UniProtKB/TrEMBL annotation:
<dbReference type="InterPro" id="IPR005064">
    <property type="entry name" value="BUG"/>
</dbReference>
<dbReference type="Pfam" id="PF03401">
    <property type="entry name" value="TctC"/>
</dbReference>
<dbReference type="InterPro" id="IPR042100">
    <property type="entry name" value="Bug_dom1"/>
</dbReference>
<keyword id="KW-0732">Signal</keyword>
<feature type="signal peptide">
    <location>
        <begin position="1"/>
        <end position="27"/>
    </location>
</feature>
<comment type="similarity">
    <text>Belongs to the UPF0065 (bug) family.</text>
</comment>
<protein>
    <submittedName>
        <fullName>Tripartite tricarboxylate transporter substrate-binding protein</fullName>
    </submittedName>
</protein>
Length: 364
């Protein structure tokens, strides 16, 4: 089991004992005849969109009353437009949920002035860790991780949503590895980065696991993309290990050692590691609005429990979303706290880097 999830389950179990006596009744909650809007603050085709569209039919099956679920893509603002809309307009009736990712967490963690939402106001229904894969165009002359050194003499091009989005993780990885990367900012989602790669407009890209499995793997099989490395997962000792979905790919730490002959360390590595954990270990969340009644929150959590046990879901989730364990209830609450909290030293280092290297200032 993923180490952070094991920790979350242990914390959640302790908290759960305190809450059992106060568990709300669920029988009166029904969404029959209703349509639920699931806001995804990114464009179609990316990992968050793939994740939501895979889960939606199973939620419709297991929420009481079998409501329709409509995926509403609302990209923009480096991932902040959708959650800003949700925070200001969503009613606490269980009929609007928000799907977050690292690209909504990071602006919040960094104090981005565009943020008009506060995670502390929200209720978490589920948390889904994920991974991701960095890949390049075969025109780079690289044919796999063993020849990655060929990239060090090239200027690579990367399509980015912005330096405060989840793209901060690859930016920190490229910096750590010493790669020369030119960033084209302003894309509205990782799906757009994928299109840019397909068109030959960029030479390096990454996709989160769901999008990689769905969209990039066929490109790899056709010889149109070359996978290089994954982000990895934390084990029970807090050490980075290979992603179980991509066991044949090295992680960033291994690639660094291949290039430099020693494991990574120092301030640049600590900054990368901090945002990798915040961006992927607790990356995707389903959020309910502030002041949602406890019985509605628990109805959503029970629906997720039922989804996780659905035989059809269990048979297909790994191929679509990867080999990661999703959680709800108290374990999700523990990961929710972990994923929306950051060490002040790491935060300040990133703010300094953004200001000095990209002229990005997030606060007054």
């Amino acid at each position: 089991m993923h180490g952070l999830l094991r920790w979350a389950r242990s914390v959640g179990a302790g908290l759960g004992l305190l809450a059992m006596a106060a568990a709300p009744a669920l029988g009166q909650v029904s969404f029959a005849g209703k349509t639920i809007e699931w806001i995804v603050p990114f464009s179609q085709g990316g990992g968050s969109d793939t994740w939501a569209r895979f889960n939606a039919p199973f939620l419709s099956r297991h929420l009481p009353g079998n409501p329709e679920i409509e995926i509403v893509n609302e990209p923009g603002g480096g991932g902040t437009r959708g959650p800003n809309t949700f925070a200001s307009q969503a009613r606490p009736d269980g009929l609007t949920v928000l799907g977050t990712s690292g690209s909504t967490q990071f602006p919040y963690l960094l104090g981005d002035l565009r943020v008009r939402y506060d995670y502390k106001d929200w209720e978490v229904a589920m948390v889904a860790p994920t991974g991701g894969v960095i890949y390049v165009s075969p025109q780079t002359g690289v044919d796999g991780p063993a020849t990655i050194e060929r990239l060090r003499d090239q200027t690579l091009v990367f399509a980015s949503q912005g330096p405060t989005s989840l793209d901060l993780v690859p930016m920190l990885a490229f910096r750590l590895l010493g790669l020369d990367v030119s960033y084209v900012f302003g894309y509205t989602g990782r799906g757009d980065g994928l299109i840019a790669m397909e068109r030959g407009e960029v030479s390096i890209d990454y996709q989160t696991t769901a999008s990689y499995l769905r969209n990039v793997l066929p490109m790899v099989e056709a010889g149109e993309a070359v996978p290089l490395m994954s982000w990895g997962v934390l084990d029970e000792n807090g050490e980075m290990q290979r992603d179980p979905t991509f066991p044949d790919l090295p992680i960033v730490e291994e690639v660094y050692e291949m290039l430099y002959g020693a494991p990574p360390s120092g301030a640049d590595y600590e900054a990368y590691r901090a945002f990798n954990i915040a961006g992927f270990a607790a990356q995707k969340m389903v959020i309910l609005p502030q002041n949602t009644p406890p019985e509605i929150v628990e109805t959503w959590r029970q629906a997720w429990r039922d989804v996780f046990e659905d035989p059809e879901y269990r048979a297909n989730v790994g191929a679509v979303l990867g080999a990661y364990e999703q959680v709800t209830g108290r374990a999700a609450e523990a990961l929710f706290i972990e994923g929306t909290t950051i060490d002040p030293t790491a935060r300040q280092r990133i703010l300094d880097m953004l200001a000095n290297e990209y002229a990005v200032r997030l606060s007054d």
